[in-house]
Amino acid sequence: MAQSPPRPRVLIFPLPLQGPVNSMLKLSELLCLGGLHVTFLVTDHIDARLRRYSNVQSRFHSYPGFRLQAISDGLPENHPRGDKFLEVFESMKVHTKPLFKELLQSGGGGEGGDRISCVIADGGLEFPLDVAEEVGIPLFIVRTISAACLWVFFCLPQLIQSGELPFTGDDDLDVMVKSVPGMERYLRRRDLPSFCRSGNPPLHAHLKAKLAATGASLPDFSNSLWEEDRFCLVWLDDQPPKSVLYVSFGSLATVTRDQLMEFWHGLVNSGQRFLWVIRQDSVAGESQVPMELLQGSEERGFVVYWAPQEEVLAHPAVGGFLTHSGWNSTLESAYEGVPMICWPYFLDQQVNSRLVEEEWKLGFDMKDTCDRSVIEKTVRNLMEVRKDEFQRSAAQMASSAKTSLGDGGSSFSHLERLIQDIKDKSV
Ligand code: UDX
User: In the Enzyme Commission scheme, what number(s) does this protein have (predicted)?
Assistant: First the structure.
């Protein structure tokens, strides 16, 4: 009897950061459900954290075609990758690239005799494109940022050519961006990606070099890389509906001790309940989180090092999210219908926060301010004064998100098309 041909094996390669790892693991699961075999390739540092803190291994057990595979990023184990992620990217270009090439050339060695027939790589990693082309394997690029922000990135060469970038100073941050049609409607200079501002010379140089080189005109579920504190869910169970502001600045952002204190006073003075994620490495210059801040407010405030964020946002007690506007956090909040206060840290987050306030009316953009009285007032506005208005618009957004993900919805149909494309290219 003729044997059926092996199924296409897709190699998925995310950036070694929590946000991209999370979203691309979800994509992997969907592709497995669509009948594909998946190799999820991560740096050895991420591999160790996933094996230790997430339930990826047990969760993917039901997909025999799924394989978690590690590749070296070329850095010593004790390198502070979170603080110095640009060094990680540089090292990967040198050390990971040849290993990646060997892996593709060898076919990836699936047990059922299958070979890697297609690569899906994060667009933030540049070398997989060159390698896949060299080896002759089709490659899809995934961007784990919003389409709106990707458009802004694509327009950067145009902004540089028109002389709008780089800024000469940070004085006119409220000037609308003029040289790209459509942008003048809602984007100010302060809403452009953080590296567009002065005081960021290496990235400016990088941008210019890139422009010159291209000559371009234009639940019971965890993917966590840290140990989740699940006690906060129990604490949330005791809080009234939509009464708690969830506060988290994602996996990379750091704050100074002064900023931490401003947030603390702002939150306490707002009189609202809050659940605050303070990562152990998130206070710049401090090795310890100042726990004495908690004294006297224990019943209203709960602090953890890392939370099961998606479960927190889905909890009925949560009524708002003070976020750094990372794209995963923004999507997770929109999906659960939780209004936001945005305090963007860098990269795409400046754009996302503007969209949240100005375009989607899902909350407030508090960028470039870190003052206890502003924080207090903004929190009150979101959680009390304008609560009904924001809860309504967030509920509408959540309903559209769910429609697009459901059978026949736009996201659902795009995913089906992607799976078909992968199968076609793997013949
Ligand atoms: C950042 C950016 O924000 C992102 O937009 C950019 O493209 C790359 O770098 P990150 O800081 O990781 O990523 O933010 P985000 O994209 O929001 O992802 C954070 C992820 O960690 C979310 O999926 C969130 O659910 C999870 N998380 C966060 C937790 O599970 N627990 C926490 O306590 C905090």
Answer: 2.4.1.-
